[in-house]
Design goal:
381 residues, alpha+beta, Butyryl-Coa Dehydrogenase, subunit A, domain 1, Butyryl-CoA Dehydrogenase, subunit A, domain 3, 11 helices, 16% strand, binds flavin-adenine dinucleotide
Length: 381
């Protein structure tokens, strides 16, 4: 067994950390206040090649793989969960196109996406319930050389900055429903962003509606074949969405750990730093153990992806474990801060608000347990 990152991955981590600390950290306060993503930052991340980490070089990516992607998200998430969330979703769009697009679609969309000219969103969830994509009501009616798309998606990350979206829609109704995925871009009339939610966290990363109102989507923008929509969406959600959330969670945990450690060494009561109190160092030990366990689960799951293996179960298990560990760690970090943990001057309250959003995103943790539990009990192994 080899638990070491490669020299290339270490280099990537170092450069990501530097980028996050110098380019993102100074913007966090403003993002918390305005709840807006600075578009200059989105461009800068594109210029650094962060969108194309898993994309082949033929389309302008760096093809470093899923482990490398997780490293980028963890390092960005350590400074800003909101930026990491936005980045993971941008990577999701490109990843889905790369997984399921045909050559013409890849040539048309991916290079611009990697250059930051085509901000992507993944539009699956509807008000009918994110846990049940088979209840998708957005319809795509087939015409001669186009589909007419009508419907409304909710809770879509990057809805406010998206130039394009991968959209799940119903292409056949009862008695045998069929779903397909489409690439919809802003050049198509009838595609627009709607309301943006006022969330408790991820301030700066928009989550809101995408609306399709008699939107004409050329047939060449069908992703995969008609009827493959659910399979395409679920593959994207697992390999890019859930892994993305795991990356954001790891970043939040590391930030909580560092904040807890620093505060415990600096805060003096009874004439000594509180790091001398067992109640404090036990919590720090628990945070540390949660991070280590989370990293092992998470990096093994993405390592499997890099080996070309299916890792749906490992990813789902990591998603519920890591995100719940993140929530535990942020709470413990807040507790260590005493009253200061509830004061905005200390970032731990932000980590805690952000961590809660990880639980429903990209499939609630009940759904992750369902994926894992059903697969394990169905298997004869
Ligand atoms: C920050 C954030 C970002 C998001 N980004 C995107 C995005 O970019 N694109 C996108 O398409 N969606 C996105 N979502 C939506 C997200 O995927 C959904 O919120 C999620 O799938 C849950 O759907 P819901 O909110 O409608 O809850 P519901 O599906 O209504 O679930 C409600 C409750 O019922 C439980 N439940 C439902 N079904 C089962 C079951 N079978 N077994 C056990 N319990 C069950 C759930 O666990 C939950 O507790 C985002 C959500 C958040 C919070």
């Amino acid at each position: 067994m080899n638990f070491q990152f490669t020299a290339e991955q270490e280099l990537l981590r170092k450069s990501m950390r530097e980028f996050a600390e110098t380019q993102i950290a100074p913007l966090v306060e403003e993002m918390e206040r305005t709840d807006k993503m600075p578009l200059d930052l989105v461009k800068k991340m594109a210029n650094q090649g962060y969108y194309g980490v898993t994309i082949p070089q033929a389309y302008g990516g760096s093809n470093l793989g899923h482990v490398a992607r997780l490293i980028t998200l963890e390092e960005v998430g350590r400074i800003s969960a909101a930026v990491s969330m936005s980045l993971q979703c941008l990577q999701f769009g490109g990843g889905c196109l790369n997984n399921s697009g045909n050559e013409a679609q890849k040539q048309k969309y991916i290079p611009d996406f990697i250059r930051g000219k085509n901000n992507a969103a993944a539009a699956i969830t509807e008000a009918t319930g994110g846990s049940d994509p088979s209840a998708t009501a957005t319809e795509a009616i087939e015409h001669d050389d186009y589909y007419l798309l009508n419907g409304r998606k909710v809770f879509i990350t990057n809805s406010d900055i998206a130039d394009m979206a991968i959209v799940l829609a119903k292409t056949k109704d009862e008695p045998k429903k069929e779903f397909s995925t489409f690439i919809v871009d802003k050049s198509m009339a009838g595609f627009r962003a709607g309301r943006v939610e006022n969330k408790i966290g991820f301030k700066g990363c928009g989550t809101g509606e995408l609306i399709f109102d008699n939107c004409k989507v050329p047939k060449e923008n069908l992703l995969g074949k008609p009827g493959q929509g659910l399979a395409i969406a679920l593959k994207g959600i697992s390999e890019y969405g859930r892994v993305g959330i795991i990356g954001v969670a790891l970043g939040i945990m590391q930030a909580s750990y560092e904040a807890a450690l620093k505060f415990s060494r600096e805060r003096v009561i009874y004439g000594k730093p509180i790091s001398n109190l067992p109640a404090v160092y036990y919590r720090i030990a628990e945070i540390y153990a949660d991070i280590e366990a989370s990293r092992l689960l998470a990096y093994r799951a993405v390592w499997l992806l890099d080996q070309g293996k299916n890792a749906d179960v490992e990813i789902a298990a990591a998603k519920f474990f890591v995100t719940e560990a993140a929530l535990r760690c942020t709470r413990k970090a807040m507790d260590i801060h005493g009253g200061y943990g509830c004061v905005k001057e200390y970032a731990v309250e932000r980590y805690c608000r952000d961590a809660q959003l990880l639980i429903p995103a990209d499939g609630t943790n009940d759904i992750q347990r369902t994926v894992v539990g059903r697969t394990l009990t169905a298997s004869k192994k």
